[in-house]
Amino acid sequence: MFGRLKKKLNEAINKVSDTVTDTDTAEQIEPAEPAQPEEQLQVQQDTKEQQETEQDKKQEKPKKEKISRSISKTLKSAVKVVSEKKIDADVLSDALWELELVLLENNVASEMSEAICDEIKERLAGKSVSRFEVKNIIEETFKKNVRESLEIEPLDIYNIIETNKEQKTPTLIMFLGFNGAGKTTNLAKLGHHLKDKGYSCVFAAGDTFRAAAIHQLEVHSETLKIPMIKHDYGSDAAAVIFDAVKHAKAKGIDVVLADTAGRTHMNKNLLEELKKIVKVNQPDINILVVESIAGNDIVEQGRVFSEAGVDGIILSKWDVDQKGGAALSLTKAIGKPIVFLGTGQEYKDLKEFNIEEVIDNII
């Protein structure tokens, strides 16, 4: 998780920090004329050498080299001691451009990448700071922007379920998403998760466009011992979900987990049908399932599916996402929280989202 982003980001941060050291070294060494002390010693030594034997000359040579090394070492130490300098805006801009490229290459949206780099430039340009402070400022700015992107009002699924239970009404959670994003699999994982927490569930096979989808959910239903409501292939998806809710009310079941057919965000007709399903059934929670490895395309998916209504996000394949930037961009783009992370193929591999853990994994 975040392996590539973490590596590249730290390389870029170090490069920006190095602009302070590189510029300091150049400016400190330029006015110092390290050759002058050696030349003076050389003149004095030449005078002595004229009066000494060849044997004496051989003895003095190591002394000259020792003094030269001492002067050089002193100059280098002086450069290191001078640890602060006003950072040149142009030098900083070049270094930050590389940082922005790293963010873009790792699927962080351009708006977020620009905001991070602009804030870093504002905090550093023309300021007197040490190399250590530069690194800290960049890391703090990055963490601040990531936190702001992710700190959206959380979706408390358990509170919604408990509130509905008090009113003797089942909670309808509908799964939306792109073809192949993992809606059915993550629906089953959430069913397992809620069952472990003591809630009763029923599955609704609302993906009636694919016979294989109905069979897939049926397998999960049998494995998890969670009942499933289904109609024939090609049936009205809204009707299937409606019947599942009706069944849940009659049986006192806490949660209805409704699958829907995968839709590309480019197909307007299918999206309009999804809006109809939502309008008919009025789900308590709409969960958008997206692959974290899908790149910046998930931002566009999020924006389009938001037209049907999105309350929270499940990021699937989180365990194999080496870039991670798209996940950060998605929440900022649609203003909805990440609720769970899909971290593997087993039912237990559904992890509740934790902001601080994500930030710590990046830097």
Give structural notes.
The chain has 363 residues and is α/β, with parallel strands linked by helices. It folds into 2 domains: 3-150, no CATH class; 157-362, 3-Layer(aba) Sandwich (Rossmann fold), CATH 3.40.50.300. It contains 14 helices and 10 strands. It has an 8-stranded mixed sheet. Helix 1 crosses helix 3, helix 5 runs antiparallel to helix 6 (131-150) and helix 6 crosses helix 13.
Give the overall pLDDT as a whole number.
78
Beta strand count? 10
Residues in β-strands, percent: 5-15%
The structural class is alpha/beta
List segments where confidence is low: pLDDT < 50 over at least 5 consecutive residues. Answer: 23-35, 63-84
- The assigned CATH architecture of the largest domain is 3-Layer(aba) Sandwich
Radius of gyration: 32 Å
Number of domains: 2
Kindly report how far apart the N and C termini lie. Answer: 12 Å
Count of helical segments? 14
The CATH superfamily of the largest domain is identified as: P-loop containing nucleotide triphosphate hydrolases
CATH topology of the largest domain: Rossmann fold
The shape is: elongated
How much helicity do the residues have? Answer: 55-70%
Largest sheet, spatial ordering of strands: 5-4-6-3-7-8-9-10
SSE order: HHHEHHEHHEHEHEHEHEHEHEEH
